[in-house]
Amino acid sequence: MRASQSVIPGSDEELMARRAASLGPAYRLLYNDPVHFVRGSGVHLYDSAGEEYLDAYNNVPCIGHSHPAVANAVSEQLRLINTNTRYLQDGVVDYAEELLATFPPELGNVMFTCTGSEANDLAVRVANFVTGNSGLIITENAYHGTTAVMAGVSPSLGPGVPRPANVRLIPAPDRYMLAVSDDELREYMLAHVRAAVDDLVASGYGVSALILDTLFSSDGILPNPVSWIAPAAEIVRGEGGLFIADEVQAGFGRLGAGMWGFTRHGVSADIVTMGKSMGNGYPVAAAVFRPELLEEFGPTVRYFNTFGGSSAAISAAAAVLHTIKNEDLVAHSKVLGYQIRTEVQSLASSDPRIGCVRGQGLALGVAFVSQEGTRVPDPALASRVVNAMREKHVLISASGADGNVLKIRPPLVFGREDGARLVEVLAEVLDATRD
């Protein structure tokens, strides 16, 4: 495929045609009018024309785009050595100790990977090995990765990725759509977990693990209530299974209630996974385990990841962790997130198209409905808002099984003035999209 002769050489249209020809159809661009970014700094991105955009969407560069602490740490390490964890190195051990200190004491071993998909894949591999079972329980629109195993437990990838026979779905804990109280939601979710466990046992798979993104980001940003995950984990453990907390979205202080989302739920995790926000986008991720889970797996299974936890990757990760601590970004996420959420709720009070606003820390979901009081999802409106905000140079996206929930998830270094701009532009777009 070649770009049409009518397309201007060097234009974004030509670049899109070349991209389609070389990368193929699997790669999809954000927004109806895709953006060509050439530079980033903090919470700002700059396109090929030099125009500035406010990034309220990208969680991976958690301490901001092109952060000098990360850039300097990686470049200095690359000039020195960049090798793997099969050699003795101070850096990886120092970082492992610092990272593990942010977890409850029962979680004492960490294994490094390059991506969150690999971390989740490793977590499931260990769970299957330890339990002798293969049954997995996930939420209806979960996303846990793109390896062959993890794609099978990521319904949000769409119907083109079949669900394996050993996977059972439970509903998303969407209190608004279910129109229930916290207590009713708790019993509803536990009933579905019990049913999934019973079905896996009856089908001969047994229960390997319950895997939950503790923010339920792909399900529509559902951090509350926090009363059901702990008893759900105990139901799973009653059949020999494990609880895996997927912190790729929620971790590293995003929710403003400690470093990790699962601790908000008062649940003890057997395995915790995290993704590339660990290195601010540099390819480093990890899974953290209760040490007893690895006692037999480690000596028995020949697992290694050549550049998971490489010297440069660990330098990036250490820079991120130190910045989060030194700049008190966990507390910042809590305070600023509450302020933004309160202001968006104020917009919702006068706009019946907004069914509910929910969130925690710097993770916010705004659910659109087609008619007041109906709770019928309105994905078309969500798409209009997302694309209209892009035109006004503020970047967000949409989430949920129906795609009707605005997903607002900025870098942790988002400032008060950035939050004010986000809310102001959202208000303008909501006014402009009224019929």
UniProtKB/TrEMBL annotation:
The keyword Phosphoprotein belongs to this UniProt entry's keyword annotation: no
Alphabetized Gene3D superfamilies for the sequence: Aspartate Aminotransferase, domain 1, Type I PLP-dependent aspartate aminotransferase-like (Major domain)
Keywords, sorted A to Z: Aminotransferase, Pyridoxal phosphate, Transferase
Highest taxon above the source species: Bacteria
One function term, GO molecular function aspect: transaminase activity
Keyword Glycosyltransferase part of the UniProt annotation: no
PROSITE patterns assigned: AA_TRANSFER_CLASS_3
Pfam family name, one: Aminotran_3
Annotated CDD domains: OAT_like (cd00610)
Family membership noted in the UniProt record: Belongs to the class-III pyridoxal-phosphate-dependent aminotransferase family.
PANTHER family: ALANINE--GLYOXYLATE AMINOTRANSFERASE 2-LIKE, PTHR45688
Record-given protein name: Aspartate aminotransferase family protein
